[in-house]
């Protein structure tokens, strides 16, 4: 059976590879003369929730389209659930769930009927470990659409429609789920409800989730790990806490001496302030210490990138892989 065959193939590459849902080595993508991905190396263990961030045009959608098997690549190695997506067969595809940026099909279908109908495709891909698909009622309960069971898809609100998109993406109980900018256009309440849904999904049967977002706060809330893509490469990778430490950078210390404003930068803000007091005593005033947050660094990066002033990860101070 093809599923067993792909698992065996994964196993042959060693136990570590079998634990990876996604692996790319030197992934490159060029559109015409434009290099969009310039060597992306990414390993995502099974069960991880990973957020891919980056400014407009950084290549997030290109990356996930390559991982989904919708787009060919220019160079590099890619394995998704142990298989090269370019060769992914229908058994492989049945293990991958996709929620695209906007999906407006099936408007005249009623929610329960649609989920039941789409779910039937997955029945032949059921395995002893993972029976497929979700029953329509169970799925509506999971995504919070039970009250809309008989509503037509075209009549749902934006937030409800997005939940239906997610239900369609997971109806086949995927091992790996791609969510491309899942909360664009949501009001704060819909966003909050969607975050709770993603947490529920992440806890289900070890589902690996890769989502893209422009919102660092959302990435922190939802994911185990944040990867920032810019200039065609991964320029930061880690948990929110790890990234915070990586980009801690220098503190800015503002003060005045006898009414004269000053600004210093220092690695150790406390030691610097102690020294200022020792040097200036009572003449020191208006003291302010500002440590850049991950958000500060990310926003600087986005502004620089979008203004075309910054294209290379290695030139941004304080941010490392
Ligand atoms: N089919 C295509 N042909 C030519 N260029 C393309 C194509 N698709 C994307 N691009 C270009 O590749 C770059 C990366 O696009 P991509 O959509 O992957 O970025 P993104 O990070 O998802 O952006 P956004 O945050 O705006 O969705 C952009 O400059 C885009 O114009």
From TrEMBL:
InterPro entries: AAA+_ATPase, ABC_transporter-like_ATP-bd, ABC_transporter-like_CS, ABC_transporter_ATP-binding, P-loop_NTPase. Keywords: Antibiotic resistance, ATP-binding, Nucleotide-binding, Transport. The keyword ATP-binding applies. GO terms for molecular function: ATP binding; ATP hydrolysis activity. Residues 22-256 form the ABC transporter domain. It is a peripheral membrane protein. GO terms for cellular component: plasma membrane. Its main location: membrane. This is ABC transporter ATP-binding protein. The lineage of its organism: Bacteria, Bacillati, Actinomycetota, Actinomycetes, Propionibacteriales.
